[in-house]
Specification:
Blueprint (H helix, E strand, L loop, with lengths): L12 H11 L11 E3 L8 E5 L7 H4 L5 E5 L6 E8 L5 E11 L4 E11 L4 E7 L7 E8 L11 E9 L1
Antiparallel strand pairs: 1-9, 2-9, 3-8, 4-7, 4-9, 5-6, 5-8
């Protein structure tokens, strides 16, 4: 007696694309054709860091690494912030993100603390600039001097500008 061979349904192209994005650590739809990675100030399109505590010696002798800026080199209709936990333990990640405008003003678009397990990917957005405002940078701040429990947790961030 022969066993029938199970038939698999062919997957639609969109499902295959979503699976390949998940395998790369990105959310489905995150890198749609209309979205572009923004360059980080200092180089590259993604930045990996560990949260430092803002201690008394940091102010006179150094700076925390909380802030990362991404340059906006053309007008986009929306922006998305991509976050991935790269720590080996679950950790708190205080996250704030701002759209910075060419007139010197800014708009906070994210303000939360993620209780993120290792490998968690989270995309924030899309965020739309107010009418008449030109975005010049997107600032992402991970960590705070007020949450010592976040110290030492690592992450990778990137930002998309979308048309």
């Amino acid at each position: 007696m022969t066993m029938p061979i199970p038939m698999t349904r062919p997957r639609p192209l969109a499902a295959l694309a979503a699976l390949s994005l998940l395998g790369a650590g990105l959310a489905p739809g995150a890198a749609a054709a209309s979205c572009t990675y923004l360059p980080a100030v200092g180089g590259g399109t993604s930045v990996s860091k560990s949260i430092q505590l803002n201690g008394p010696l940091v102010f006179p002798f150094g700076r925390t690494n909380f802030n990362t800026d991404f340059t906006v080199n053309r007008a986009y209709s929306s922006y998305k912030v991509n976050f991935k936990s790269t720590s080996t333990e679950r950790g708190p990640y205080p996250i704030q993100a701002y759209l910075k405008f060419s007139d010197g003003s800014n708009l906070q678009v994210v303000n939360e603390t993620l209780d993120a397990p290792p490998g968690l990917f989270r995309q924030f957005g899309p965020f739309y600039p107010p009418a008449g405002k030109l975005v010049s940078q997107v600032n992402v701040k991970v960590g705070t001097g007020y949450n010592a429990n976040a110290t030492g947790f690592s992450y990778t961030i990137s930002v998309f500008g979308c048309r």
